[in-house]
Amino acid sequence: MTDVLRRGRASLAFSFFAQGVAFALLVTRIPAIQDRYGVSDALLPAFLAAVPILAGVGSVTTEQLVKRIPPSRVLRWSQPVVLLALLGVGAGESMVELGVSLAAFGLAVGALDASMNMLGVSLQRAYKRSIMLSFHAVYSLGGILGASLAWVGAHWHLALWVSYLPVVLVLLPAALVGSRWYVDGGGDADVVEEKGEGGTLAFALLLPLCLVMCFAYIGDSTVSNWSAKYLQDVLGSSEQLATVPYNVYMVTTLIGRAIGDLGVRRFGAVAVVRAGALVAAVGFGVVAVAPGAWVGMLGFTLLGLGLCVLVPQTFAAAGRLFPGASDAAVARLNVFNYVGFLVGSPLVGALGDAWSYRGAMLVPMVLVLVTLVYARSFAAQPDRYGGGHERPRTADVGRGSNGL
């Protein structure tokens, strides 16, 4: 059974990695996509907003699908769709083809994100120790590689399909082969009934985590969308130096997630989440008052170290809160990933235009600090059988997606 879990963990980690590569290749080549299809500046926000909206639809749909089929099957077939849709974006010729490809990407990525984190939560429960941050660390590593490949494509003026095709040819068959070893978790009907999976009580219990997820992604989208502009326009850096903060943010995110599980095992999830929120808030504060570019980059570095722990621990907390209904909890929680992504960039832009970009950085700082109010939701939940730990659940490790 240990070998089953190890293979399941490795195969799921590769899925996180492949998704990180694919998503980075899409978002970092948006200017090239805009040029290829002749998308106007006025129309571009509609295309960009459609992806997270449809991803939210995909996540909600996945909640219903996993009632009939295991999450491993959803992941097995949604990942190839994401990769092929990415290739479609690069190879299309008309605006209609772009729209269809982005729609397929959005729907599939919602199903992919939800099912990946469902499997991650159930594996962590089976391991009986924190491993969730390691999956998101591998995602960050994939994002760094994808962004690097995108830079190569832009530097050598490669056509989009030329940049995307080799990646898809490598990742798609590897993901399909690896999907043989996914491990599904088991459910527990009596716990589902007790927690009120579909009722008001369940949403009230899940709401604090939904807010934390939303606030974390508002912070993340602030960095990804505004760090370069902020450094150049507000702090007076060169154009070349303005590209550095997001790269530093990605690297520190990877480092923080790589060591974060050790922190959770040593100090507990509540302490790690509180520390992450405080570090992220300090990071936003440093960015807001920075006198120059180098101090601003220090702030973005702190943001990577702080924000990186919030999202993985939010998924893990949902699994602990609803041990018999973790798939549904993760799917609902995942929707707020896209809500935060949709809200973050326009919010900072509107505040920056109406007030100041320095002042705008204080808003995500305050939202991240609200996480401290909800930190207790990340504590291990006592079950109805007594004690402060979840009871052993043999069903969680009893079946793999290939029948093991």
Automatic annotation (TrEMBL):
Composition skew (Basic and acidic residues), residue ranges: 386-396
Ranges where the Major facilitator superfamily (MFS) profile domain occurs: 205-404
Transmembrane helix recorded as keyword: yes
Ranges that cross the membrane: 12-30, 42-62, 74-92, 131-152, 158-177, 198-218, 271-294, 300-322, 329-349, 355-375
Superkingdom of origin organism: Bacteria
Record PROSITE patterns: MFS
Gene3D superfamilies: MFS general substrate transporter like domains (1.20.1250.20)
Keywords: Membrane, Transmembrane, Transmembrane helix
Pfam families xref list: MFS_1
Keyword NAD attributed: no
Topology of this chain in the membrane: Multi-pass membrane protein
Region (Disordered): 384-404
Localization per record: Cell membrane
PANTHER family, alphabetized: BYPASS OF STOP CODON PROTEIN 6, INNER MEMBRANE PROTEIN YBJJ
Protein name according to UniProt: MFS transporter
Organism this protein belongs to: Streptomyces plumbiresistens
